[in-house]
Structures are given as C-alpha cells and as structure tokens.
Amino acid sequence: TLPDGLINLADFEGPARERMSAQAWAYMSGGAADELTLRANRCAWDAIKLQPRVLRDLSGGHTRLPLLGRELAHPILLAPIAYQRLAHEDGELASAYAAAAQSAGMVLSAQSSVEMEAVAKAFADEPQSGPLWFQLYWRNDPGFMLELIQRVEWAGYQALVLTVDAPVHGARDRERRAGFQLPDDVRAVNLGGRKQPIELAPGQSMMFDGLMPRAATWREIDWLRTHSRLPLLLKGVSHADDAREALQRGVSGLIVSNHGGRTLDTLPATAELLPVLRAAVGEAVPLLVDGGIRRGTDVLKALALGADAVLLGRPYVFALAAAGALGVAHGLRLLRDEFEIAMALTGCKTPADAGPHLLW
Ligand code: FNR
C-alpha cells in the first residue's frame, strides 16, 4: 500500500529517506562538488513562466507523440539510474512494471542491479508499454561490448543510449562524506567479468594515463553504429558543435542532460542547454531532456523549449524506495495528470502544439 499524503513528486522524498540507509540516500540524492548544477536544474525550470491561451477548443486533445518510429502515449520516460536495488529489493524490475503499466518509456542503466532480460519481459508482458532502451557506458574491450550489445538486442531493447558525459566519476563530495560503498548484494549484474585493473608507471597520472585512454571518442561512435542495428542516442552532449558532429556520424537522437548535476559541477541547467541544442540539430532530430523535471509544468516547458520528451530521474527512485512498483506507478500517474492539467490550462491541445508561444 501507499503511504498517505503522496500528492506530488516531492512528497516521496521523506518516506524514501526514512527507508534508505544514509549512504544510499547520499548516493541517490547527491550531486557533484558544490551541487550548483544540481540546484540550477531545478531553479531554471522554476524561473520559466508559462503564457496561456484561453477559450480554445481542446476537445480531442491528447498527450500522444511520435518518437523513433513509435507512438508514445505521453512524453515521460524513466531515466537510466544505476543500482536501484539500493532503493528497494525489487530494484529495476519494480520500476519496469510501473513504467509499463503507466505506458512510460524506460532507459535501463548499464549498471542495473537486475538482469536486463527480466526488465524486458516486464515490458513485453504489458501491451500498453512504452519504448525500452538500454544505456551503455563505453568499455575499452570490443569483445565485451559486442556480447553486451548482442544480448541487449536479443532481449528486445529498441535503442542504445551511450552516456558521454561521465568518462570518469565526478567529484562526489556528498557520497564521499557519507562513506558510500555498494553493499555486497547490489551489483551491476549485466556487466560480467572484472574490469582490468589499471597499472601505472611511477609519475603517471591515473586520469590521463589510466582512465582517459580507455574512454570513448568519436571513433567509438562509428564502431557502435557499425556493430548494432539499433538506433543510437547520445546522452550528455552540451556543445552545439558536438551535437552536429553526432548527427553527421549517424546518431539518431540526443538526450540533453548534465547527469542530474552528478558529473561536472557548474554546467548550465538543462533548461538553458535545451534550446541551444534544438537550434543546432534542427526540427526533425529526436531530442529528449532530463534534470530537475518534477512537475507537469516542467514537462510542458521542456516541450515548449524544443524537447520531444523528458526523462525523470531521482523522483522515481524515491518513489521506488517509498512504495516499490506501486510508488513508481503512482508517481508517474501524478506527473502525467499534472502535465495534462498544464496542457489544458495553457490551451495546448497536443504535444506537437507546444512551442515557445506557451512561454512568457
Ligand atoms: C544517475 N544517472 C545515470 N545516468 C546514466 O546515463 N547512467 C547511469 O547509470 C546513471 N546512474 C544514476 C544514478 C543516480 C543515483 C542518479 C541520481 C542519476 C543520471 C540520470 O540518468 C539522469 O540524467 C538524472 O538523474 C536526471 O536528473 P534528475 O531527474 O535526477 O534531476
């Protein structure tokens, strides 16, 4: 059953915090360094004002939209979040059942603590389910990557999302202060094998001699394009030139993201990045955005600034911690309802009708 008083996404935080260890809470809720970007994401959506049109005939309105060759029931997906069994023993499986029941898309993290096939089955079992994508981090081992991609394709995932903004860990002060370590029973179960330990000669830098030579470059984008038949999206591109380069290399779409403020601090808010990237890629390219989306009005503002769809991050893992699959489904329903209210009250009939004219 649901705890009482869950009437918006913020209401899940209290119950979630009570149910999680202090370390898990620091990991899930925290950002990088001074958490300026984490806060900026929220503040930027708050600072945008809507401008309604009234007396329009909205009968026949709806929240449906096309995305990568499919029709979505609404523009809300679950963002890839690692190790969800930290929040609830059912982990990503509960999130998947909830997303499928609410026709929300889901991007499964490479660092899922539940097997990718189980998540895919939860989606396949629900006729109304939305799109299911798999998020990758590059690992400098083509054999490993090939096996992983093949497994993702066989399991029925419909797109690959390569996260490009986190080749190394951010400076996660809050996590370190809390002494966060993964418990023994929560693992990235889909990434078999041990990572090669990095050996450095005296005087070498872990960053530039150890980690960065293994990180993805544009060459690896070409490699992924030739080794998978699935559409490839990049998550975490900020510069317009990078966005254009991605398109030239056959990338199918972008997720505008600063990793929820967890990687490089002092990045712009995603509400600021979004219109810049939409202008760079043109009208037709699928563009999604995440970071600080908490209200139906945020979803509508994102669409007005040029996003096709949004991804929800922390709030759904808080809902998962608070009440498992039921909590996540309830949180998604609340956000969908708020989004429909925002559309109705701004005179916006369908997602395709959202545009800058809705903004003050
Ligand atoms: C993340 N995020 C993330 N992104 C990704 O590409 N792969 C991953 O494994 C993870 N893991 C992860 C764990 C946790 C605890 C958080 C909070 C975030 C980033 C995530 O996909 C998304 O970009 C942000 O969470 C969106 O911001 P909000 O909605 O949390 O503000």
UniProtKB/TrEMBL annotation:
<keyword id="KW-0288">FMN</keyword>
<feature type="binding site">
    <location>
        <position position="137"/>
    </location>
    <ligand>
        <name>glyoxylate</name>
    </ligand>
</feature>
<feature type="binding site">
    <location>
        <position position="262"/>
    </location>
    <ligand>
        <name>glyoxylate</name>
    </ligand>
</feature>
<dbReference type="GO" id="GO:0016614">
    <property type="term" value="F:oxidoreductase activity, acting on CH-OH group of donors"/>
</dbReference>
<dbReference type="InterPro" id="IPR012133">
    <property type="entry name" value="Alpha-hydoxy_acid_DH_FMN"/>
</dbReference>
<feature type="binding site">
    <location>
        <position position="257"/>
    </location>
    <ligand>
        <name>FMN</name>
    </ligand>
</feature>
<feature type="binding site">
    <location>
        <position position="235"/>
    </location>
    <ligand>
        <name>FMN</name>
    </ligand>
</feature>
<dbReference type="InterPro" id="IPR037396">
    <property type="entry name" value="FMN_HAD"/>
</dbReference>
<dbReference type="InterPro" id="IPR013785">
    <property type="entry name" value="Aldolase_TIM"/>
</dbReference>
<dbReference type="GO" id="GO:0010181">
    <property type="term" value="F:FMN binding"/>
</dbReference>
<protein>
    <submittedName>
        <fullName>4-hydroxymandelate oxidase</fullName>
    </submittedName>
</protein>
<feature type="binding site">
    <location>
        <position position="109"/>
    </location>
    <ligand>
        <name>FMN</name>
    </ligand>
</feature>
<comment type="similarity">
    <text>Belongs to the FMN-dependent alpha-hydroxy acid dehydrogenase family.</text>
</comment>
<dbReference type="Pfam" id="PF01070">
    <property type="entry name" value="FMN_dh"/>
</dbReference>
<feature type="binding site">
    <location>
        <position position="163"/>
    </location>
    <ligand>
        <name>glyoxylate</name>
    </ligand>
</feature>
<feature type="domain" description="FMN hydroxy acid dehydrogenase">
    <location>
        <begin position="1"/>
        <end position="360"/>
    </location>
</feature>
<feature type="binding site">
    <location>
        <position position="259"/>
    </location>
    <ligand>
        <name>glyoxylate</name>
    </ligand>
</feature>
<keyword id="KW-0285">Flavoprotein</keyword>
<feature type="binding site">
    <location>
        <begin position="80"/>
        <end position="82"/>
    </location>
    <ligand>
        <name>FMN</name>
    </ligand>
</feature>
<keyword id="KW-0560">Oxidoreductase</keyword>
<feature type="binding site">
    <location>
        <position position="27"/>
    </location>
    <ligand>
        <name>glyoxylate</name>
    </ligand>
</feature>
<feature type="active site" description="Proton acceptor">
    <location>
        <position position="259"/>
    </location>
</feature>
<feature type="binding site">
    <location>
        <begin position="313"/>
        <end position="314"/>
    </location>
    <ligand>
        <name>FMN</name>
    </ligand>
</feature>
<feature type="binding site">
    <location>
        <position position="172"/>
    </location>
    <ligand>
        <name>glyoxylate</name>
    </ligand>
</feature>
<feature type="binding site">
    <location>
        <position position="135"/>
    </location>
    <ligand>
        <name>FMN</name>
    </ligand>
</feature>
<feature type="binding site">
    <location>
        <begin position="290"/>
        <end position="294"/>
    </location>
    <ligand>
        <name>FMN</name>
    </ligand>
</feature>
<dbReference type="InterPro" id="IPR000262">
    <property type="entry name" value="FMN-dep_DH"/>
</dbReference>
